[in-house]
Specification:
The strands form 4 sheets. Strands 5-4-1-8-9-10 form a 6-stranded parallel β-sheet, with helices on both faces. Helix 1 packs across helix 8, helix 4 packs parallel to helix 5 and helix 6 packs across helix 7. By secondary structure, the chain is of the alpha/beta class. The chain has one domain: 3-Layer(aba) Sandwich (UDP-N-acetylmuramoyl-L-alanine:D-glutamate ligase). 33% of the residues lie in helices and 25% in strands. A hairpin with a 5-residue loop joins strand 12 and strand 13. The protein is globular.
């Protein structure tokens, strides 16, 4: 079982449009409503793969009830933490060329009692979990050290932690030695405080995160592929993508693929890339099923293309 923790979940509506023209009336060619939040997406991807998952998340108001209903319909066990504020609602606008415009609401502010109840719910639900995936931004009221506290408590209980967050929350949590962290290129550059122009730059940045405490770093480099840097060395993997429809949740699908495959080593990296490549070819935040995956298309190597320029260099 993979337990996910999403401190700031959302109700996500995605519109597909021919083009986004500012100030004009735009008619959508398709739309869908999904439960959102990075940890929620990991649970959705795990469930789509036929594996058991439990989602811990604070829920409030009508949007919160709808999120729980949608997750239940997808066969995901929900461990809700009732909060006084309303769960946020987000909007994504997807264009045919893969351009995505997102409007994310801030979400409710959690009281000290609600924060502690969230941690306690994670503790109660973690028995028997192969991994705990802690994902996404922190809602108002939670200090950057909140993830560090969660990692410390989880490790004290003998659980393995995968952390997907950024900024001060990521840096604060590194001192508690999360088992794997999953930044994208932009988050990796932010963490080390300098631009990344090549795959080699990304490897060096990942190694610095390991020096700060991360036991392994799974880094998404967008269209260029993904990196895994751990005790055994560094690995680079990529897969061709015919058409990008939406990258919403693609990184979360990658993390799910990594954890499903055991959460370590090149085989897990290959699974992560296969899941991410499949996800970007699906509409909205639809998560891939095993039928959508093309594992034979993934290449994994320990010979890092150090000088390969990133398609989207990060400044």
């Amino acid at each position: 079982m993979i337990l996910t923790v999403t401190p700031n979940p959302s109700l996500d509506r995605t519109y597909e449009v021919p083009s986004l023209d500012r100030g004009e009336v735009v008619r959508a060619t398709g739309d869908r409503m999904d439960p959102g939040g990075k940890g929620v997406n990991v649970s959705r991807a795990v469930a789509a793969a036929g594996q058991r998952t439990v989602a811990v998340l604070p829920l409030g108001g009508a949007p919160g009830r709808f999120v729980a209903q949608l997750l239940d319909e997808q066969g995901i066990e929900v461990a809700p933490v009732p909060v006084a504020g309303q769960t946020r609602s987000n909007i994504s606008i997807a264009e045919p060329d893969g351009t995505l415009t997102k409007i994310n609401a801030p979400g409710p502010e959690l009281s000290p009692e609600e924060q502690e109840l969230l941690l306690e719910t994670v503790r109660r639900q973690s028995a028997g979990a192969a991994w705990i995936a802690c994902c996404g931004s922190l809602p108002r009221g939670l200090a950057p050290s909140w993830y560090a506290e969660l990692v410390a408590r989880a490790h004290a209980a003998g659980a393995r932690i995968a952390l997907d967050t950024s900024g001060p929350a990521l840096l604060a949590a590194l001192r508690e030695r999360p088992d794997v962290v999953k930044p994208n290129a932009e988050e990796l550059a932010e963490a080390v405080g300098r631009p990344l122009a090549t795959v080699g730059d990304a490897v060096k940045a990942a190694e610095e995160l390991r020096e700060l405490g991360a036991r392994a770093v799974l880094a998404s480099l967008g269209a260029d592929g993904q990196l895994l840097v751990d005790d055994s060395g560094a690995y680079f993997a990529s897969a061709p993508v015919a058409v990008v429809r939406s990258n919403v949740g693609a990184g979360d699908s990658s993390l799910a693929g990594f954890l499903i495959a055991g959460g370590s080593g090149p085989e897990a990296l290959a699974s992560a890339v296969a899941h991410g490549a499949a996800a970007v070819q699906l509409p909205g935040s639809v998560m891939p099923t095993p039928a959508d995956l093309e594992p034979a298309a993934v290449t994994v190597t320990s010979v890092i293309p150090q000088d390969q320029a990133l398609t989207e260099a990060v400044s």
